[in-house]
Amino acid sequence: MFSGSQFDATTAFSGGGFMASQSTNLNDSSPSAAKSRETQGLIPVTVKQISEASHSGDEKSNFVINGIDVNNVTLVGMMFEKAERTTDVNFVLDDGTGRIKCRRWVNEAFDTKEMEEVQDGMYVRVYGHLKSFQGVKQLVVFSVRPVTNFDEISFHFIDCIHNHLHTKVKAEGITPANPSSGSSLITPVKNASNGSQEPSSNPGYAQYSVDGLKDCDKLVMDYLQQHSDMSDERGIHVNELSRELKLPMDKIMLSLKTLGDDGLVYSTIDDYHYKQA
Amino acid sequence: MDTSNPAVFVNGELLPKFIGKKVRTVVQVNKCDGVVSAAKSTDDQELTVNGLPQVPLMNFVEVIGIAETNHSINAEIWTDFGTTFDTNSYNQLCQLANGEFRNLFL
Q1: Confidence band (pLDDT; 50, 70, 90) for B59?
Q2: Subunit contact B1:A137, Cβ cutoff 8 A
Q3: Distance from CA of A40 to the nearest CA of B (A)
Q4: Is B78 on the interface with A (CB under 8 A)?
Q5: Do residues A25 and A100 share a domain?
Q6: What is the pLDDT of residues A208-225, one digit of tens each?
Q7: Domain limits of chain B?
Q8: Hey, CA dihedral for B28, B33, B34, B36, is it positive or negative?
Q9: What's the pTM value of the predicted model, to 2 decimals?
Q10: CB atoms within 10 A of CB A27
């Protein structure tokens, strides 16, 4: 849903304002800044990992897991102690490694509807923003969905392990940094919007190359080649081409125009006689 | 935040390590009389689950409860996972969660 490189987590869910982590990142040397930025998206974690996350800086919402800044996380667990209020729904998420308090603000009908579909004891997938409130870590969640395929539970924890390994490998510098990975998702979109004229001009260009002649052009060329006679300066009449090649006149004329533009044939005594160049 | 009472991912082989502790496992129910159920773990061991209500036979059920003996669990919470479940992936997850990546879970 939210991929790390496309979704700027910090600005979208921090509630706006000046972010200390961004300014420090800019001042940092480029490798570490790039590293923390790349993994800033949505991270699959366990409650145990959150419990061990350390605070970075003075901001209430800056946490570090595996040396990486963490803002938005996804968890899978059982919902307990759901308590609905007029503006928000509180609940506790138990993923088997621990329990964490969650809060879902209900501003719109969609929020209310989504929260009505989940109940205590149900497995849910949550997406949320990790925050510290009065010294206690909690999740401000923006999506709570019931788990319908229970393989998602296994998947989530395998995903946690995978992400843990991935960041660990990166931190230790085993795999080389890939500076283009961040922009690669955006670049093709840019090209598509800017280069709208390219697709139409490209096939046209291909037609003019000698090797890539269209079928009709090729037939005309071959005929002119086979029936060329140095002594006959008039060349071949278009009617003969049409008759011998069994092609309509407009196709013959189009091919001759194309071939003429490319300098492969030329008209002789009038516009109806052609010779190979 | 409370990580004092985790439910450990276990299969049949790992269950004896957690006697008296809270565990979670997925089993396929073979016999079920509403009190004691016989079930197969994800690594093909026969387990006894106490306190499991009537569930459709051959369904996969997740049981969270206290490990009683080497082969039995007292169920506190259970969830019917239905008729299809990837037991192989779950079994490998149990091994990873108790092995190399234990620190992410316990």
Answers
A1: very high
A2: yes
A3: 19
A4: no
A5: yes
A6: 444 556 788 888 888 888
A7: 8-93
A8: negative
A9: 0.63
A10: 7
Task: Tell me the sheet residues that pair with B27.
Answer: B61
Q: Is residue A28 part of a domain?
A: yes
- In sign, the C-alpha dihedral spanning B18, B87, A96, A48 is positive
Residues of the domain holding A272: 206-276
Chain A nearest-CA residue for B6: A97
Which segment of A213-217, A240-244, B12-16 scores lowest on mean pLDDT? A213-217
Candidates B1, B55, B92, partner chain A, best to mutate (most A CBs within 10 A) = B1
B42 touching chain A per CB within 8 A: no
Contact list in B for residue A123 (CB cut-off 8 A) is 79
What Å distances lie between residue B74 and A162, B51, B106, CA to CA? 32, 6, 21
Smallest CA-to-CA distance from A101 within A140, A144, A46 is with A140
A194 Cα to chain B: minimum distance (Å): 45
Q: Do A97 and B2 lie within an 8 Å CB cutoff?
A: no
Angstroms from B36 CA to nearest CA on chain A:
22
- Contact pairs from chain A to chain B, CB under 8 Å: 71
pLDDT, tens only, A144-202: 999 999 999 999 999 999 999 988 887 776 544 444 443 333 334 334 444 344 444 44
d(CA A34, CA A27): 12
Per-residue pLDDT tens over the stretch A104-126 = 999 999 999 999 999 999 999 99
Domain B8-93 has CATH 3.30.590.10: no
Whole-angstrom distance, CA of residue A226 vs CA of residue B32: 89
Task: State the amino acid at position B37 in one-letter form.
Answer: S
Residue B62: phi and psi, rounded to 5, are: -90, 130
Are A72 and A158 part of one and the same domain? yes
Q: How far is A100 from chain B (nearest CA, A)?
A: 5
User: What pLDDT does B87 receive?
Assistant: 95
Instruction: Collect all residues of chain B within an 8 Å Cβ-Cβ radius of residue A124.
Output: none
What amino acid is encoded at A208 in this protein?
A: Y
Indicate the Cα dihedral angle A139, A143, A146, A152, nearest 10°: -80
Q: A129 versus B35: which is more confidently predicted?
A: A129
Q: Are residues A159 and A237 in the same domain?
A: no
Of B3, B60, B97, the CB nearest to A98: B3
